[in-house]
Design brief:
Length: about 170
Amino acid sequence: MASFFTLLRFQVLFLALKTLKESGHEHVYNAVEKPLLLAQSAAVLEIRTHILATSLVISWSITEIIRYSFFGMKEAFGFAPSWHLWLRYSTFLILYPTGISSEVGLIYFALPYIKASEKYCIRMPNKWNFSFDYFYGAILALGIYVPGSPHLYRYMLGQRKRALSKSKKE
C-alpha cells in the first residue's frame, strides 16, 4: 500500500508540473483532482465498503466514460454527435451532486478512523522540522468542499450553457 501512495504522489507532482508548464496555474487543480481524491478516499480503508464509496465510483465512472469517449470521438473523427455533446454537458447535473456528496460523506465518516489511527501524520521533531496532521487536513478539505461546491456547480452550468448554445449556432 505504501508503494501505491508513493506512485500516486509522483503522479500528482508530475501532472501538476506538466500542467503548470503547458496551461498555467488555472488548470493545475483540474489535472491533479482525480488522483488527489483517490488518495483521500483510499487513504482510510476502513470506509471502502461504505455505500458512499460505491456511489462515488459509479458517479466518477459514468462521468469519465462520457467525457473521454466524447474527446476520443472529437479527436478521431473531428466531431462528436449532438447527443454526445448534450450527454457530456448534462449528466453532471445529477452526477456532480452525487459525486461531491459521496466525497464529503466519505471524508466525514473517515474522520474517527483518521483521528484514532494517526495515519499519514508527521510528528515533530523530525529531520524536516515539519508537522502534518491528516485529521486536520481532512477537516480543512471539508471546509473547502462545502462552500466551494456550489461555486464550481455554477461554473459548470455556465460551461454547459456556452457549449450547448454554441452547438445550436453551428
